[in-house]
Amino acid sequence: xxxxxxxxxxxxxxxxxxxxxxxxxxxxxxxxxxxxxxxxxxxxxxxxxxxxxxxxxxxxxxxxxxxxxxxxxxxxxxxxxxxxxxxxxxxxxxxxxxxxxxxxxxxxxxxxxxxxxxxxxxxxxxxxxxxxxxxxxxxxxxxxxxxxxxxxxxxxxxxxxxxxxxxxxxxxxxxxxxxxxxxxxxxxxxxxxxxxxxxxxxxxxxxxxxxxxxxxxxxxxxxxxxxxxxxxxxxxxxxxxxxxxxxxxxxxxxxxxxxxxxxxxxxxxxxxxxxxxxxxxxxxxxxxxxxxxxxxxxxxxxxxxxxxxxxxxxxxxxxxxxxxxxxxxxxxxxxxxxxxxxxxxxxxxxxxxxxxxxxxxxxxxxxxxxxxxxxxxxxxxxxxxxxxxxxxxxxxxxxxxxxxxxxxxxxxxxxxxxxxxxxxxxxxxxxxxxxxxxxxxxxxxxxxxxxxxxxxxxxxxxxxxxxxxxxxxxxxxxxxxxxxxxxxxxxx
Length: 492
Ligand SMILES: Cc1cc2nc3c(=O)[nH]c(=O)nc-3n(C[C@H](O)[C@H](O)[C@H](O)COP(=O)(O)OP(=O)(O)OC[C@H]3O[C@@H](n4cnc5c(N)ncnc54)[C@H](O)[C@@H]3O)c2cc1C
Prior knowledge:
Strand content: 5-15%
Bound molecules: flavin-adenine dinucleotide
Low-confidence stretches: 483-492
Structural class: alpha+beta
Shape: globular
């Protein structure tokens, strides 16, 4: 009979090992900064955690309820979204580099910019699944319109306000954002800090200045941001900066990344000429500021949230990363499948429709299989969000895989259409999508970084039953804590 240790013996052995190894581990463990800690600890771990533990728990997977839309959400998709899609001429929008005025009006009138805003503030208060379904449907017709709708509903002012705003900020901004009277953008990354967004050099120095005739405490901001979606048409800029207290006698103090809302135009802020991301029609541009004074009550959540911006952003991204870009990824795959399979049935070569050639049927089947698998993962993750999860690692998994599958699908589609996909014009149904695929790959965490740092790096630490707890134990020099099985430990 094989020798088995009891759980008490196991615990004693691991406790001894823990005490013995802790000093060595403490020596090699790099110091974890506040920004890394916020990124590592953000969000929750759901079903995906069991893969990193090496134990796939399919009963847990089966227990996750499927995506469910309410009657109002389904009616919005069937009526408003269909009406919107009928107004979108992909080629004409691409040529005009803007959405038609009546589309902008329609989006505002029907509260497309307020899907995540609670009804109490005039928004639609849609579930995550419904919001993603709307973006997917629009993107399958025109990506520029989808991006325009997506940004105010994803990481940005509305989302941050809903979770962290003061009552005064919510009462002022949320109804205006829901009605589209205010159009937001959110400026985090800068020319020197893209993937490494916590390294932004943009600063806000704590100071007092006269504001509306009264001496007021606030920040003097100097910043330079680029690639900011909707900036050229924004009336309120969400801004992330490093807050600094010059501490007249006690020395300079770094207060940490802070998020504020700034109505524009505002003295000192300039929104530069439009960038043209892959020549797309959605609005994108740089935002700069030089010695811009803002009062403290423009900080999202007020002065108590100074320095908490990074954690706020990481928490919101933990959920949001599962929605917008994966929705675009699903739409790009649908477009490619629809266009390429239709064309392959119509186009004859060698006396046969080209779909009869195995080497055309194979990439078509690959697009379909990829779409089925990745879209199931996307819907599942959206539904876990509606159950209250904020799955940071699962979000990164679906962001990465949906956008990579989209790029593969578009490439296959281009091959199948041959010359038809190469020459630009209203009857080329893939070239605009082809230009957009790299945008989805790059934003909200460029894919190489997403795979390396979030899926595998954060996944291995966050989803592992012990690693994060061991790190905490070593930081606190607590050998007893390091030896505890996760079930006995207090939540972190
Ligand atoms: C169209 C568009 C819209 C955007 N909208 C906004 C917006 O509204 N608001 C905003 O704040 N920002 C926005 N951005 C900025 C976007 O978030 C950044 O472009 C993105 O984070 C990547 O940064 P970067 O372009 O500087 O690339 P870099 O950070 O220079 O990365 C270059 C390459 O290196 C890889 N890489 C970097 N670090 C690592 C690592 N540690 N391990 C492995 N690989 C790594 C990346 O994956 C990438 O492949 C937008 C960008 C674009 C193109």
